[in-house]
Structures are given as structure tokens and as C-alpha cells.
Amino acid sequence: MPPELEQTLTLLSSHRSVLGYLLLSRGDHVSIIRHSGVIFEGEQGKKYASVIGKMVESVQAGLEEVSMSENDGDQIRFMRIRTKRHEIMISPDERYLLAVLHDPAS
Amino acid sequence: MSDKRRAEIEAKRAKLAELRKARADRQRAETERRQAEPGPSSGARRDVDDLVNQLVGSRSGLDTGEDLTPSSSLPNTPPRPSTNLLHGLTLSPSGRVSRQSDVGSDKVSMGTTMMGMMEHVDRVLTPRFIPDLIDVEQELFELPQRERVIYNKEVQTTAIETETPQISENEIRQQIMRERELEAERIAQDKELEEESVQLEKEIEEEIRELTEEERSHILSAPEFLDFVEQSSKIVQRALNDGYDYIRDYTIGTEANGDDSEGKRVKRICAFYDERCGKNRSITDIDWSPKYPELSVASYNKNPAALNEPDGIVAVWNLHLLDRSEFVFHSQSDVLSVTFSPFHSNLVFGGTYSGQILLWDTRSKHLPVLKTPLSAAGHTHPVYAMQMVGTQNAHNLITSSTDGTVCSWLVDMLAQPQETLELIHAGHNKTGEVAITTLDFPDNETTTFWVGTEEGNVYQANRYDRAGAKAGLNQYDIYKGHAGPVMGLHFHPLVGPVDFSDLFLTASVDWTVKLWRAKSLAKPSTAAHAISPIYSFDEADDYVYDVKWHPAHPALFGTVDGSGRFDVWNLNTDTEVPIVSTNVGSGRAINKLQWDRKDGRRAALGGSDGKLYVYDIGDMALPRESEWTDLQKTVAGFIGGAQANGVVDGDATRIVAGR
For this UniProt entry, which segments traverse the membrane (chain B) (predicted)? Predict the structure, then answer.
């Protein structure tokens, strides 16, 4: 695990309103590469991971449906889901996914 | 008669005895043979058996040498497997087939070795001994079993029952229906099973599985993973930076916000600092991006404590991303000056302590994409000042180093400078070198510039020969006033109805900031004479490291000094003291000041603690309509006052306000 990576991720998770992050790998199996924060521990983390994976898949499928032309249409760059309590920010890639949970009101 | 009979009988007896003896011998021989297992003759049989087995088993062509490795015996002939045997049978090989083949009445005619052995064997035995031969039959090759096609005679049609055809039809129909039902059931079952299995598979897929250690380390070391984390974490951090809760409901809530009274207050927006690039280093230069107003660049000198880190670092900071830099560039030696290219939004130029000029591209990684060579063609001394002049199509980078060399470069050709100019002051007592610390071009001028030197004087220089003036330093007009090295020099920006672009400010180590009027180039002097400043600002308590005019407001300028103070002056309000004076940071010196390009609301201050402070001056940056005329009056007041004191050389025609 190269040190710059560690530093970047620690910086991210030490932000005052961030509650945790999840690094997932996409593909046939969604699997957790790394996670941090109390929220993403154990079973809860796995559930979040599968839910986030499904959400991204369904949004991407929706985008492909509405895309006019046959070629490579739009792709999700960033998703920000503001719920009553928290905000989930998802930054997907072809192969990986970074999801950060934070509390904007704090 | 009896003799004859006796002779006959004797002969017969002898014969009988012989026969008996022969039989006894034979029996003895047999028993011997049977007892002595590895007896010679039986040995022969056994050898034959062994040989045959070997030959059949290995199928290696043994018809050549006596050793069992055909390849070594006859190097020319490659070992020919099973076909050998066939050949051996069909063609009798190298004819050592002896006459004793009748002895070898066994069907194996393996050739020489066998025959040879037989011969040997036979010679061992008594010549009259007729060996007891065994027939050994071995199949050396397997013929494929010939398929014997057998035909059976059968009746094709089944016995027809002609009694009750209808019933059978019904029966048949029922049978068919039953079969169909069965089939349908089977199909249904299959389908169910399939669906179940599909579902199970899906569930298995959807199950989040943990990665094995191997997979994890494999992913973690992949370069695209690192890139992905860099990119996405930057995006997330920018989004996190927002701070505004957009679902806030203003109808509820009792937020007691403290109101900010702007007025004449200077507010700090942020301080960019990163351990990686700022620790133990000082900021040596700052610039704002002409294209993206939120980006600024800062150059750092070396960290004396860390010898493994690059000596020079340049970091691009984004106002929306406070925790970390957008880009970081490395250099082999301390970077002393940095500037964004005004014509290409991706390029960043840097001048270093070694004299090299480096070009970085934000699209590439840490290292410079272009460098000037470390040769005598370019600079060999630290490059403290550089500026980009010209237009989009014809622009040059002008750089100056402390040995008085001023080079002009073409952006894409950094292999050698387009022009080199040595600024030499012939009148100096020891050496003609002029140690340039700072350089500036007036707005709209590209061929003549002013330099501030280590001795405290400011000189004007020309890039090219022109009527009445040669290229190089103009040694006749000496702007004398400072008692120490000039650290900053800045011409008034050309903006607004009145042209003040001949006014420039200098900041120096002698704790003062001085305002000068540049001598017009129309009348070049022929004799050395000193030019004095119009005004001097003596408020500071420490070295003044930088001074910059405000880009929008004509009478506003800022200074930074060695005690960590940032002063904002307004000449129309007060010429003796700054209107706002702020203590920046922890009291360490601030090295550079740069107003942001658009409207000058923000100022970036680079500290010697490695932090880049960004301050907002708010409404002070907005000039009123009257500022220009007010400034004219002020400047006139300066000159008038100076004249009255006998400092400035009187030239009545020049006091016409503004020009």
C-alpha cells in the first residue's frame, strides 16, 4: 500500500464531517477493497457496499437507456445523495468506486 | 554260426548300451538343465524371452546395435520406432541370418542380435546337442481387430394385430398424451431447477465477498487504482469543501449568525499548506492562473533537513480544495521564480537556483517536460525574476539572473535562448556586473525594462538597439535612493482613464518603499545622473520583501515585510500610513505578494514558513470614479513637495498631472 495512497485516504477520513469511506471494486462481484469508519464495519459495511453497487448499476443503466445514440453515451462521474441525516458521495470509475459518507450539518 | 550270432548279439548289446547311455545322458542333461535354471540353454531361452519382451514392450528399433540405445549406436539413423519391427519382419535385415535359422524355428526373426545370440548359445553347447526348442509366438504389432460385420436377419415389421384397431388408437393417443404430460412435467421441473440455480447464482454474485489478501495486494499496487484514488479523492474533497447545506430550511432553526462587518477589514480565506511540499521550506514566488481564477501556484525552495526530497517544489493550489494541492511538480534545484503561461493554461514556468529554466505541464506528472541546458548559453546563476511578454502569437519569456544576464526564450525552444543580454555597468569600480534581483516591464512595453539590483539602484535597460540608445543597460540614468538591495519592483498597471504607467514602486531591505517616476525614453541622457524617488514610505519595521500595485484600484497597493505584516495602502486616503495592516501567520516573514488577476479582491501571500495565505480585502478593492483624478492630484502633490524640498530635478513641464 503505497504511502501516498495512505496519506490521501487518511486525509479524506480525517475531514471534520466525514464519517467513513468505502473503496469498492466493481465488475461481476462487488467487493470491498478498503473501508474506514464505524459505519462501514462488518455486516453493515457489506450491506452498504451491495446497496451502493446496485444503485450505481441502476443509475448507469438508466443513463444508457435515455442516451440517444448507440455509441458510448453518458457516464456517471459523481453522485451525491443527500438524505435527511447524511450525504453519500459516490465517485465511480470503470473498475472501482469510492463512496464517502459525511454529515453536512456538522 | 554261433560266432556270427555271438557277434550279432554283441553288436546288439553294444547298441542297446549305447542307446541306454544316450538315454541316460539325455535324462541327466535334462535334469541338469531343469535344475540349473540359469543354465546355458535355458538361459538362452530366457534371454530370448526377455529380449522379445523388451522389444515388444519398448518398441524401439533394436535391429542395429547390441546396446539398447539406438540413438547412440548409429548416430546417422534416427531411432525408428514401431515401423522397424515391421521392416524387420518383411525385409530380413543386415544379413546375419545364419543357416541356423532352422534352429530358430520360432516365429520371431528379430534379426542379428537374436541370431548372434543363438549362434553363441549354440557354440557353447555340444555340437551334437540338439536343443529343445520352444515355440514362442508373440504379436509384435497389433493389428486392429477387423470388425466383422454381422447381419442378422430379422423381420422389420412388428406383428400386426388386426383385432381392435380403434382401441389401440385410443391407447396410442393416451400414451402420447401421457408422454406429453410427462414431458411437460419434466420441462417444468427443469425450468424450476434452472430458475433456482440462476437465482442462487445471482445471490452468490450479489453477495459481497471479501477479497483474499493476494487479490487485495494486487489491486492496491495497480497504477490505475492509484490514479483512481487520487482523482476521486480530489473530487470528493472539493465537494466536501462546500460547507453549505443546501437543504437547509430557513423557516425553522434559530441560527444566530454573527454578522460580518466588512468595512475596512482584511479577512483571511485560507492558508494552503501541505507537509509534503511545505515542511521546512519557504515560498519563493507566487502566481495566479490567468485562465482559472481559483488556481494559484507557489514555488518552494529546498528543505535542508530532508536530503532525499527534491530540492525545488512547485505546487498548484485550488481555492476549492483546501487540504491538498492540485498538482505538485519537482525540480532538481530550488525554484526561485514561477509563473503560469498566460497563453497556455496548462504550462507553468520556473526559474531555479542553478540557472535552469523549467517548464512543467499540468497534464504530465511531477517532472518538467522541458528544461534549458545547464550550459553557458543560458543562465549559470540563480534566476530570481522572470516575465512573459508579448502577444499570443509572438511571446517570449524574459529571465534574469544575478550575474546580470538577461535571456529571452521561446516557449517551445528551451534548448537555447533566443537572445542573451549582458547588463554591464562600465562605471562600476570593481566589476561591470549588475546583480539583478528583480525585473519588471511597464505595461504595454516589451523592449525596455527596469531592473532592481543588489546594490540598491534601479536601472533601465533595452532589449534592442534603438535610436539613441544601445541594447543593454542604460548606465546614465541611475535611480538612486535605496540603501540596500531592491527586493521588489512593480510598474503601475495600465487600467482606467488616466495613464499612470510610468510610476513604479520599489521595496527594499532598507525598510522603505519608494515611489518613482520612470524617465521618459524620448530623451536619452548622455551623462550619468541620478534620479530620485518621488516619495518614500517609511512605515515598515523590517525588511520589506515585496510591493505590488492593485490591478483594479489605481491608488491601492500592498506590501509585505519580514515581520509577517501585510499592509494595504491607499494613496488617496493617506500617504503616511497604510489603511489596513494585518499580521499574517505566526510572525515569520512573508516573501511574496500577488494580487489575484481578475478584480484584485484576493491577495496571495507566500510565507517563509511554507504556507500560502490567501486574504480577501473585500470592498476596498472597488475603486470609485474619482480615484484616478484623486491620484493625479496626489502624485502632483508628491512631486510638488519633493521639488520644494529640492529632491526631484525640476522639470516644470512634467508636472502636468498624469501625462
Answer: none
